[in-house]
Amino acid sequence: MVAKLIDIAQAATTATLLMRKKSMAESATFSREMDQSRRAIRASRERLRQRHRDDVARGWEDADPSTVAVSAFQADVLRSAFRGLDV
Q1: 31 vs 11, 22, 27, 42, 75, CA distance in Å?
Q2: Other C-beta atoms within 10 Å of 22: how many?
Q3: For 73, what's the count of Cα atoms within 13 Å in the CB-facing half-sphere?
Q4: Alpha helix locations (H) across 2-71?
Q5: Can you give the pTM of this predicted structure?
Q6: pLDDT tens per residue, range 23-81
Q7: pLDDT tens per residue, range 55-65
């Protein structure tokens, strides 16, 4: 009877240790995968920023001077400034 109890206790202890080891391995794997995801997101954001910068730079290079957007307020300021010159 005592031998059976010792065997049961050893089996329970072994199972507990194996479960703990597996849990720790899963936690480590999860952490690695999260770190990899964070790096991928960071790289993706940086690529988007770079692409946006390139698009903005290309917009300035390719901009036709006759199609530059000017707000109504800016147009009023320019009109009054040129009106004051009396050229």
Answers
A1: 30, 14, 6, 16, 56
A2: 10
A3: 0
A4: 2-62
A5: 0.47
A6: 988 999 999 999 999 999 999 999 999 999 888 877 666 656 666 678 899 889 988 88
A7: 887 766 665 66
- Tokens of residue 11, six digits: 């089996």
Measure the CA–CA gap between 2 and 64, rounded to whole angstroms: 94
> What six digits make up the tokens of 55?
């698009």
Q: Kindly state the tokens that stand for 77.
A: 């300021």
Report the first-to-last Cα separation within the chain, whole angstroms: 115
Rounded to 5 degrees, what angle do the CA atoms 24, 29, 30 make?
95
